[in-house]
Amino acid sequence: xxxxxxxxxxxxxxxxxxxxxxxxxxxxxxxxxxxxxxxxxxxxxxxxxxxxxxxxxxxxxxxxxxxxxxxxxxxxxxxxxxxxxxxxxxxxxxxxxxxxxxxxxxxxxxxxxxxxxxxxxxxxxxxxxxxxxxxxxxxxxxxxxxxxxxxxxxxxxxxxxxxxxxxxxxxxxxxxxxxxxxxxxxxxxxxxxxxxxxxxxxxxxxxxxxxx
Length: 212
Known about the structure:
The chain is mainly alpha-helical. It has two domains: 10-72, Winged helix-like DNA-binding domain superfamily/Winged helix DNA-binding domain (Arc Repressor Mutant, subunit A, Orthogonal Bundle); 77-210, Four Helix Bundle (Hemerythrin (Met), subunit A), CATH 1.20.120. It is built from nine helices and two strands, in the order αααββαααααα. The protein has helices spanning 10-23, 35-42, 46-59, 77-101, 104-122, 126-144, 147-160, 173-189, 193-210, and strands at residues 62-65, 69-72. Strands 1-2 form a two-stranded antiparallel ribbon. The longest helix has 25 residues, at 77-101. The N and C termini lie far apart (40 Å). Mean pLDDT is 91; it is low at 1-5.
């Protein structure tokens, strides 16, 4: 259908659908994106499909190769190391800024999210833990309030989803991650900038170690 949702351009809706196919592995890493075939599947012309692919390329999810077309990005170990290095710097800075900028209400919200994280871990509910973990990090970035930094973090997080498995699925990683989140929260609640940055960077470094 060519119907636009909430007055959004059609290519944005198409980009959302393509992104979901990539995350669900319906379009595996390394696969070629046949514009015409995909456009036919979606019941649209090639123009919005081409624009949607450009959006995903700007996010790093798609790699456009000269004279060969567009492919779902493949992520290897070197890519992961480079991505985690950048995330460590940026998210560490976000935690540092949050420790000084957060209001009492925002600190309470972070604390509440962490309690939910503790419960998910106790229930061994990996899916719930993963969801709340994302909200915890998102809130820290939101409080830090640097939209440019947050945009880069969001795009890098999307690229990480291309990897076959998340680090939380590694043996013992769930509990270790929980302990690391406690350290991050404790530092932020104490408004200790250095400790908050250090705890976040340590958390990201250990996340990389757990990724296979």
